[in-house]
Amino acid sequence: MLKTLADHLEVIWGALVALVVVMLLTPAVGGMARMLGAVDRPEARRLNLRPIPRLGGLALFFGIFVPALAFLDLSRQTRGLLLGAAVATTVGAIDDFRGLVWWEKLLGQVTAAAIPVGFGIWVHRFTFPIVGIHVLPKWVGMPLSVLWIVAIMNMVNFLDGLDGLAAGVSAISSVTFALIALSLPRPEIQAAILSAIVLGASLGFLRHNFYPARIFMGDSGALLLGFVLAVIPLQGLLKTASIVTLFFPLLVLAVPIVDTTFVVVRRLKHRERIFEADQAHLHYRFLRRGFTQVRAAVYIWTWCGTLAIAALGTRFIRPHAHGEWHPWRTLAAALLGLVALAASVYMVYLLEIVKLASPRARRRAEQERRVA
Prior knowledge:
Blueprint: H1 2-36, E1 39-40, E2 52-53, H2 57-71, H3 76-97, H4 102-118, E3 125-128, E4 132-135, H5 138-159, H6 165-183, H7 189-209, H8 218-235, H9 244-252, H10 254-269, H11 282-288, H12 293-317, E5 320-321, E6 324-325, H13 327-357, H14 359-371
Antiparallel strand pairs: 1-2, 3-4, 5-6
Helix pairs in contact: 1-2, 1-7, 2-3, 2-7, 2-8, 3-4, 3-8, 4-5, 5-8, 5-10, 6-7, 6-8, 6-12, 7-8, 9-12, 12-13, 13-14
């Protein structure tokens, strides 16, 4: 019991240390970015009306790195995770500072993702219904793990288009991962601590990044947060050998996954470059419906939070516990699922149906098609 209490205190302290480090370090990083000329200047695709320093990912990196050294076991896997995080941040910082062509950036992301996989962080097995436990060979599990990490890195990066949006979604995702990790039959304390550290770092950065932002996280921060959020399930949540746990990260990260999927499909449909920036992402669509930046960010946070609650409900309510179906638990889980589905349908209604019902919205939709 004392060990459990100590573990939970480490989770809390990890979050607090990360919060303080990022809050204190971010202004200094912003000043350095201005001196180096790493700023986002107003232009067609930018929403900021004045130059805003980027490279905020450097503050996020130290906010994660320092408490990780203090509270995580420095095992081989942890060292691989931190080394990969450093590479992901470096690749993003170079892109923030001087820019990278798409293949250079992708190569850097694959390199960062391959490091923790090479240090042993990859999905080894799943338990499928009826079939039972299925062990994944290295030649399947390792490439799939690299693909997962690279995909989530890009999804969080694509989501970083509104003040505070990516930081808020990362905070919601990380607190959900922490609660799930602590709730497992054999609690994944290392995954819980790391999730709490990401939570603290995200909230600390949000203090400076919420509208009107005084600094942007840039690719250095988005790639870092995406990297860590992708590695946490591989290191902890998926090692319970239960196929159900696969849906936790998919549900928690559903908003960036859906956003990226629709954008990539649209670009393929119109034969556009996949890695070329445009204004087809969810947050731009909200703005074209007349939402303010704050309102759009809060709506997307609420959507993400609703899906996270559904994931937690699936974990904690457990309608099929001990081999038996429990009617009230099943009803509660179904209601949470319906709420999450209703939130998703409502977002589609706002973005797709409302624009067809209003003449002004139809004009905006026509402008959107021309922009796309």
